[in-house]
Amino acid sequence: MKFGIIGAGMIAKFHAQAIRAMADGELLSVYGRRPEAAEELGRELGCRAFCDLDQFLADPGLEIVTIATPSGAHLEPALAAIRAGKHVVVEKPIEVTTERIDLMIAAAREAGVTLSGIFNRRFTPAVAALKRAVGQGRFGRITMADAYVKWYRTQQYYDSGAWRGTWALDGGGAVMNQGIHTVDQLIHLAGDVRSVCASTACLAHTGIEVEDTAVATVEFVSGALGVIQCSTACWSSTGHPAEVHLCGEKGSVFLADERFRVWDFMDPDPGDEVIREELMQGSQARGVGANDPKAINFLGHQRNFEDVVQAIREGRSPAVDGTEARKAVALINAIYQSAQSGGVRIQL
After folding, report:
1. Across the strands, what pairs with 321?
2. For residues 221 and 148, what is the distance between their CA atoms, to the nearest angstrom?
3. How far apart are CA 256 and CA 241, in angstroms?
4. 31 pLDDT exceeds 90?
5. What's the pTM value of the predicted model, to 2 decimals?
């Protein structure tokens, strides 16, 4: 299928890599607000470049639009693409508030097109294996479910773009920007959240409106309890992996980025040996994107895009449809609401 990208920055180039790696994806065009940036990206990627959004969307050959603008600037181009009859895939977070996401979901439903978010960390073999273990009931009752993102970003990272570290365009700090993938994995694996209580702070950076450190306690609908910790103020020479911990009365699994640090169940299964041989963390594990966002590979995005294409052809919802992509944002919005209210427990 033929793709077009809205956005001309690093994430747009990342989308282009993923699309080009697909067996059934063609990058047709890019759109950027600044003509010189759009034209430069078009030359670099070998595709048509537009600085007029209406002209970009008017191309009858364009089937799927990916949105790679700053987080709080996803709604307007997404709505324009939806109203032009294009399927839309939006970089994380799909938007920065649930109200804005609901507008996108309603517009896509009315237009009869597919809306998907990007949560590329769902599309790893390790997450698929852990999801199967949950579905098979191998944990018994899940009692604790936690997410830990102890990463590092320099001051220069925040200074590099006026939108970074702002409520309007970044939608938040360490939780919304860096932690959201792991928060999404936690919900995907442990289920919906009932309530949250949180505290946030900006401890190691200046000139930003948002947090670089956050801690939240979570109560899941299932009754399980958990903790979410996210930071961009945790320096490490190698970078700490982002981790999801699931524990229950019959098992414990600690997922570290794309591999397992712990895979341990009361009742053995023949597939456990395959997991231990192929998906266990090595002794020299480094955090993927923990210190440098450019270090993240595009394979997860490729799988995310491929799922969208397959869903469109099969007439089904993609794995990360608008409703799924909304869940992590709703939880993060509640974390911020709790922190800004002095740690009051917020019901979702």
Report:
1. 116
2. 20
3. 5
4. yes
5. 0.95
